[in-house]
Amino acid sequence: MDLDEVLAATFSLIAPHLTERQRRLLLGAAARALGYGGVSRVARLAEASRPTVRRGAAELDQPADPRGRIRQHDGPKRRRDTDPGLLQALDRLVDPDTRGDPQSPLRWTCKSTRELAEALTAQGHPVSDDTVGRLLREQDYRLQRTVKTLEGAQHADRDAQFRYLNEQAKVHLAEGQPVVSVDTKKKELVGTFANGGREWQPSGEPERVNVHDFPDPKVGKAIPYGVYDLGRNTGWVSVGTDHDTAAFAVATLRRWWEQVGQRTYPAADRLLVTADAGGSNGYRVRAWKLELAKLAQETGLQITVCHLPPGTSKWNRIEHRLFSAISMNWRGRPLESQPRPIRACGSARSWTAAATRLGSRCATRSWRRCRCGGTNSTGSGTTPFIRKQPKRHRRQGNRAGTP
């Protein structure tokens, strides 16, 4: 048998069982035994590089490491080991309010790793931006957004208000009475305007939209007002075109009752409405109370309105069950015309066991002004309806005081 075949078979059989240093020593010993040309010959047979074979031959003349070290010691040291004050200086720059000087040079600037590296270098701690990023991660720093958790002063009866609302909803649902959550979704620009989110498109062919967000006065905005039925897990959306007023809000509620509500609850004699404390359905808006009184007189329903405490609109059920599905349905696409948001609302579905079904309509009537006349009807609610509304009150809003 040829010597080259014997060496190649030996190297392939024994190499998997050797450490890195032992493998170098074996190749170096074989090269030295072969004599001239042995380095290239062994490198070819063992499929190794010639520098590795030369290094193994040189290590044969060195004494063995008593600790059994495979690689050489005294490798490159970290910057934090050679510069003991680096971590303290980095902490003072990253968090000047709690760990350092409030007059830090980066107190009012961007704290990127590049800016931090330049500031540390100017203070006598030369370091790269990559090293700064690694040190920050080792110190348990992460890039984080602000978290909206501070709600300011809270009323002492806030928890009691939520419990009262919850009990009212449970009683109505247990007796088979309708319970709805109402609110106005964010006004959307109609036209070729940018819309948040992303949608699948051919590569390099994104949806083209305007570079500005100035509304087109000829088209107006889309104002979705929704009614979410808590008992049936269904929704209704009316899309307005000009203004979000109390008349528009109650008109949406009236249309939901005529089209869906009275068919779903034929024996109902009461209706519970949960709403935010502000906006067109706010607790101080007299036009909202007047229009609800008209609706109660027309339908014969005893309407109860429970307002969520101020600043707690994110707990309104319609926000999570209805409006979130609509936002996901038209993400990344411009609402080019008024029918577009209506179709988007009507085709929205929520990913739950019971899909939220939506009905949508376009409210083409102008709700620019809400005229309030006298009425003799009354209704029930958490705030009483008044019998007489002043004729001079022609607009609802913050100027509308409590009755």
Question: Quick check: average pLDDT?
Answer: 76
Task: Please name the fourth-level CATH homologous superfamily of the largest domain.
Answer: Ribonuclease H-like superfamily/Ribonuclease H
- As for the number of domains, it is 3
What is the third-level CATH name, the topology of the largest domain? Answer: Nucleotidyltransferase, domain 5
Helix-residue proportion: 25-40%
| Low-pLDDT segments | 349-403
**Category by helix and strand content:** alpha/beta
Main sheet makeup: 7 strands, mixed
Order of helices and strands: HHHHHHHHHHEEEEHEHEHHE
Q: What is the CATH class name of the largest domain?
A: Alpha Beta
- Roughly how many Å apart are the termini? 111 Å
Based on Cα principal axes, name the global outline.
elongated
Tell me the radius of gyration: 37 Å
CATH architecture of the largest domain: 2-Layer Sandwich
Structure write-up:
The chain is of the alpha/beta class. The chain folds into three domains: 57 residues; 58 residues; 192 residues, Nucleotidyltransferase, domain 5, CATH 3.30.420.10. 38% of the residues lie in helices and 10% in strands. The protein is built from 14 helices and seven strands. Strands 1, 2, 3, 4, 5, 6 and 7 form a seven-stranded mixed beta sheet that branches.
SSE arrangement:
Elements: H1 3-14, H2 20-34, H3 38-46, H4 50-59, H5 79-82, H6 86-94, H7 96-99, H8 113-122, H9 129-138, H10 158-174, E1 179-184, E2 188-189, E3 221-229, E4 234-240, H11 246-264, E5 270-275, H12 286-299, E6 302-307, H13 317-329, H14 339-346, E7 357-362
Parallel strand pairs: 1-5, 4-7, 5-6
Antiparallel strand pairs: 1-3, 2-3, 3-4
